[in-house]
Amino acid sequence: MKSHLKNSPPIPAPLAPLGRIRDITPRDVQAIQQQLGVNSIKDVITAIINGRLETVEGLKPAQIKNIRRAFKLNKTADSRVPLWDARLAGEELLRALCQFPEVEKATLTGSLRRSKDTIGDIDILLQLSEADHRKLLYKIARMAQTERIIATGPHHICLILRNQLQADIRLATRKYFGASLLYYTGSTQYGDSLKSMAAQKGFRLGPLGLVDMQTGEYVAGEQETDIYHQLGIGYLEPELREDHQSMAALQSIPPLVSFSQLKGDMQIHTNWSDGTESIAGIARYLSHTFPHYQYIVITDHVSAKRPNHVLPPADVFRQAAEIDRINDQMGFGYIKKGVETDILENGEPELAPEVLQQFDWVIASIHTDFTRDNTDRLIKACENPYVHCIGHPSGRMIGMRPPYPADWNAVFDAAARTGTALEINSRPNRLDLNDELVRKAVRKGVKLVINSDARTLSHFDFVKLGVSMARRGACSKKDILNTGSWEDIEAFKAAKQQLLRS
Ligand SMILES: [Zn+2]
């Protein structure tokens, strides 16, 4: 991996991690140390951030890139990948790592475990049966997924995968697995508050466990829950380990919503509009794949204005008859008749009340004018008696366009006041509402609906991403409308009529 020349200068211990980076020779370390006057890794990181690494004579751009990557300083907005892609790549990597006999446990950590909507790199923690890691590091370097190694250490390997994502794999024995998991899951801010809380109680907390500061004795570290128990606080779900709230506030959050609690998917597109699958095919697939669903809502785009990939209003009757026919065959009303209608420039839905009234569920969405302030359009749509839910309320497309400007407090007030649900759209490039807006909406008492917005069968899994956003927004079952039965949905619709009348 690197050339250890005869007469190469010794690497001072505090700079040892530099020497473990690919293509960095002891001479390079010496050059960095002497030319930048650095004596610790902290100094090196400061020098990288200040752009001084580039001034070291003799360092090549590729070497600088490796150093930046090894210290996770290679991040830019566009080097982040959507959570969905990172999850798929991370899970594939976990499966590959679990094949090695010395790996007892493998789990995702970092922002991937916290389910942030975009991910910088894939962090993984392995529990190993043996203390000697050299053989395993050698095997990891030769996995099919590995393109090249960036850096290795006694308990760490950093690599670039063939899909160009960076993976940081940490190693721990059973005794320290929980402590390492807590440490590497982060976030940094959360870790720091936990550390100071531990210090107040006389403990030191780090990847090597919870240690009694007076006696130096190891107190806990096998499981994350052991550490929380010793600190006298409840376990905190990874999705909540950010810096938004105080420790005390985090303790009072009720159990978070889970995918298994969802009773239906309420935005689905079929081959009647812009989807690829038939209604019957979708019903067959979902009733087998997600048996806990009690209902699904078909919500094709119905429009007289858009030329392509929509259902003309004249065909709504035909689609309704098809749904009735399939429900009859299934023996119960599994498939509900819904629609996604455009919110026009003036905030009115495109479809007339007589059309909207035929549906079991009406989603109104903004599909035009993404740059203007859309507060008035969103409020007007909430006030419409035939609209049950606002689809992808903020209009953001991750990596493409930010949410449109809106006074979200006013929008959430309107949704709560009119009994209109807001969507958590689970498409990987939408995740809309995002975690922060979800948190604000539920605080105002707004009900949310987690939908796949599927166009094809593989999209139905996206709902798990929407559940992650809901969990990051501290939602419990009661905040999510589609954890309820269809009777609950009907009651929600009836309540809206009541609220508008009062
Ligand atoms: Zn839409």
Automatic annotation (TrEMBL):
Q: Where is the DNA-directed DNA polymerase X domain?
A: 1-242
Residues annotated as transmembrane:
none
Keywords of the record: Exonuclease, Hydrolase, Nuclease, Nucleotidyltransferase, Transferase
What Pfam families does the record tag this protein with? DNA_pol_B_thumb
Q: Name one GO molecular function term.
A: phosphoric ester hydrolase activity
Q: Which GO terms describe its biological process?
A: DNA repair
Question: What cellular-component terms does GO give this entry?
Answer: cytosol
* PANTHER family with a match to the protein in the record: PHOSPHATASE YCDX-RELATED (PTHR36928)
- What this protein is called in its record is DNA polymerase/3'-5' exonuclease PolX
